[in-house]
């Protein structure tokens, strides 16, 4: 019996330590790894875009006299929202400046002539038509159609005192970059001023950021 006493004493002291070690191992095994964070390859939602480039009016507004072909530059900012993968709705503000010779008197009756500019607030819709997948099976390149309507205010007022309604539409191509939030594109747009019967067109690269 005396020979067993040290063994019994050791067992009594070691039991709590072994139990604690088993409990610690059990707790460690019960903790699971955190799930890996995942991101959308293409972000869609609210967006902000800018675009600009050369714009042209074939027959600028005029009640009488010459309506010469007029070249210029346009710039536009747009905010809106993506509705799914294919449809986007937004509002925009566009400004343009066009050159015209001294023989262009617009609607001034000869009181003014020359260059003019215009500012257009309005609404726009865009529909993605065809998408092309990259080597990761992500549709990054899209062909789309875009159209809108806006209220056109000209300057100087002496040259073109009357406002007009602008309608426009055209195709474009857009590429969603691997930066997720950014896309770049190129658009060709035909336009028409309703009251004056003026036709125009523009070629505009664009940059878009989606939140």
CATH architecture classification name of the largest domain = Beta Barrel
The total beta strand count reads 8
Overall 3D shape: elongated
CATH class of the largest domain: Mainly Beta
Mean pLDDT: 88
Assess the beta-strand content as a share of residues.
Answer: over 45%
Fraction of residues in helix:
10-25%
Kindly provide the radius of gyration, computed on alpha-carbon positions and rounded to a whole number of angstroms: 33 Å
Number of spatially distinct domains: 2
- Main beta-sheet strand count, sense and barrel state: 8 strands, antiparallel, barrel
**Structural class given helices, strands, pairing?**
mainly beta
Keywords: Signal
Protein name: Adventurous gliding motility protein CglE
InterPro entries: OMP/PagP_B-barrel
Organism: Stigmatella aurantiaca
Overview of the molecule:
With 211 residues, this protein is mainly β. It folds into 2 domains: 1-30; 46-210, Beta Barrel (Porin). The chain is 12% helix and 53% strand. It has one helix spanning 5-30; strands at 46-57, 70-83, 87-98, 116-133, 139-155, 164-176, 182-193, 198-210. It has an 8-stranded antiparallel barrel. A hairpin with a 5-residue loop joins strand 6 and strand 7. The longest helix is centred in the N-terminal third of the chain and has 26 residues, at 5-30. It is elongated and about 80 Å long.
């Amino acid at each position: 019996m005396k020979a067993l006493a040290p063994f019994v004493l050791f067992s009594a002291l070691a039991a709590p330590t072994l139990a604690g070690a088993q409990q610690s191992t059990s707790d460690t095994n019960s903790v699971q790894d955190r799930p890996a964070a995942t991101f959308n390859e293409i972000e869609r939602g609210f967006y902000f875009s800018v675009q600009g480039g050369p714009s042209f009016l074939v027959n600028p507004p005029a009640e009488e006299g010459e309506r010469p072909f007029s070249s210029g530059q346009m710039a536009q900012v747009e905010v809106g929202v993506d509705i799914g993968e294919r449809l986007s709705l937004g509002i925009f503000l566009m400004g343009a400046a066009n050159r015209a010779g001294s023989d262009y008197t617009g609607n001034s009756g000869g009181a003014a002539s020359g260059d003019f500019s215009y500012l257009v607030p309005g609404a726009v819709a865009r529909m993605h038509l065809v998408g092309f997948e990259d080597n990761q099976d992500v549709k990054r390149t899209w062909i789309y159609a875009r159209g809108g309507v806006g209220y056109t205010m000209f300057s100087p007022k002496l040259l073109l005192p009357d406002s007009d309604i602008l309608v426009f539409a055209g195709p474009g191509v857009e590429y969603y970059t691997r930066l997720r939030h950014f896309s770049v594109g190129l658009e060709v747009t035909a336009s028409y001023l309703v009251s004056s019967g003026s036709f125009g067109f523009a070629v505009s690269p664009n940059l878009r950021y989606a939140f």
